[in-house]
Request: fold
Amino acid sequence: MNDQGELSIKANFEFFNLRGDIDEKHPVVDVIRRAIRTGQRETLRGLEELGVIERHHAAHNLITTVGRNVLARLLAGDATYSGQVNYGALGSSSTTPSNTDTQLGTEVYRKLFASHTTDGNNVVYIDFFYAATDTNGTYQEFGNVIDGTASANTGQLFSHILTGGWTKTSLQSLFVSCQYTIA
Reply:
């Protein structure tokens, strides 16, 4: 909370193209997670120099009205939704995200989270890992979904970001780490 007692959620994303031989269980993925969560940027630079990380991009994103509404309902005891972000969706639309968005502009692929945790200090980390064989293309948007299914456009869109064109080939894995700070 800020000094006026106002509550806010800050959302940060970090996107990584990794060599295609890096899978979700590879130890380097845990090294990347620790580096993000502890602010060890020199570790990430070292992995880039070794060619493990082929591309890295960090950005802030939008928490949608429907996403914030799910949290408000939970605080009021309404358990219609679990509140768990379970899918990360990639899309091809370059339309600017809006507070009123309920789904990506054009969803192309989604995958269940790879990991999620909290640090006990109002920060939640949710990671998504797309293996070299999962999907390929250029993705203009990314979003997190609460209570989604494997089908496109299901669940409650929690966050939405324009990526600027994340490109993934069949020779790369894609790792997306989402950090939500409640202040």
About this structure: The CA atoms of residues 114 and 128 lie 5 Å apart. The chain has three helices and ten strands. The first strand starts at residue 9 and ends at 19. The helical segments are 27-38, 41-49, 65-75.
